[in-house]
């Protein structure tokens, strides 16, 4: 913990992420994910002849999937670092009053950013493995139907292309969920590095769109290493979740 020369103000830090900024990051993530999914489909289906199983073989080839991995991980890092910077602004601006009055050494924020970037790399492998596993199951079913029918390879590829697994809609689902997760993880990296944050409070938009899962979580407080509810350690609580957390000085 860094040596402090000022006492932090107790209570909830009320500054929330700018919704316009969050939506912009979602759009940028969606664009990157949509391009990566389209490029992955092209790589899987390029010059496969009549051998539909070649798509499954290529899906297990790290060289084929690496561009997809790099694109998604890059977006996770970008958003996580933005979350870390916002966490710094919350602490320096709202805990200590003004940023220049913060007693926290600059190197602490370098550490926070490094941890946010490291989180993105580690979690990125888990996320992409899950995406590719789901994709593999879909392709296996499609290839099985192809083998048992009189479908041409061209018809199979068109069916896959229109089936949603490589669609902009899937890219958006991934983007909204993962922007929420990466931003919150970046926040946590800054809060932990600061040494003054001991708890978090769950926030929702508190409108008619709040779902039955997140509604009861609004305003709930948990320690940095505690769950808000069983199996829910932080946003996102479900796919497309747009909740966020704010830090508390106890």
- Taking pLDDT < 50 over at least 5 consecutive residues as the criterion, the unreliable ranges are 1-6
Mean pLDDT: 90
What series of H and E elements makes up the topology? EHHHHHHEEE
Strand percentage lies at: 5-15%
> End-to-end span in angstroms?
16 Å
Q: Please give the number of β-strands.
A: 4
What general form does the structure show?
Answer: elongated
Total number of helices: 6
Using the CA coordinates, give the radius of gyration.
21 Å
Please give the share of residues in helix: 55-70%
Q: How would you sum up the major sheet?
A: 4 strands, antiparallel
Structure in words:
The protein has 6 helices and 4 strands. The longest helix has 43 residues, at 106-148. Helix content is 58%, strand content 6%. The model is unreliable at 1-6 (pLDDT under 50). The protein has a 4-stranded antiparallel beta sheet, covered by helices on one side. The two termini are 16 Å apart. The chain is an alpha+beta fold and 250 residues long. α3 (62-95) packs across α6, α4 runs antiparallel to α5 and α4 runs antiparallel to α6 (168-194).
């Amino acid at each position: 913990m860094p040596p402090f020369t000022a006492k932090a103000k107790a209570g909830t830090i009320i500054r929330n992420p700018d919704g316009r900024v969050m939506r912009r990051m979602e759009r940028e993530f969606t664009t990157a994910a949509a391009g990566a999914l389209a490029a992955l489909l092209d790589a899987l289906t390029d010059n496969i002849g009549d051998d539909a199983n070649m798509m499954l073989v290529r899906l297990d080839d790290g060289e084929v999937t690496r561009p997809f991995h790099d694109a998604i991980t890059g977006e996770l890092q970008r958003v996580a670092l933005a979350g870390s910077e916002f966490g710094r602004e919350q602490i320096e601006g709202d805990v200590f009053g003004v940023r220049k009055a913060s007693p926290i050494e600059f190197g602490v924020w370098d550490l926070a950013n490094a941890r946010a970037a490291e989180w993105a790399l580690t979690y990125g492998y888990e996320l992409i493995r899950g995406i590719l596993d789901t994709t593999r199951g879909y392709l296996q079913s499609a290839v099985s139907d192809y083998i048992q029918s009189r479908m041409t390879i061209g018809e199979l590829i068109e069916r896959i292309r229109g089936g949603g697994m490589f669609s902009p809609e899937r890219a958006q689902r991934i983007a909204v969920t993962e922007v929420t997760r990466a931003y919150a993880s970046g926040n946590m990296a800054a809060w932990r590095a600061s040494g003054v944050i001991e708890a978090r409070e769950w926030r929702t938009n508190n409108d008619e769109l709040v779902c039955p899962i997140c509604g009861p979580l609004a305003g709930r407080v948990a320690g940095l290493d505690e769950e808000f509810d069983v199996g829910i350690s932080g946003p996102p609580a479900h796919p497309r979740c747009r909740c966020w957390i704010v830090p508390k000085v106890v």
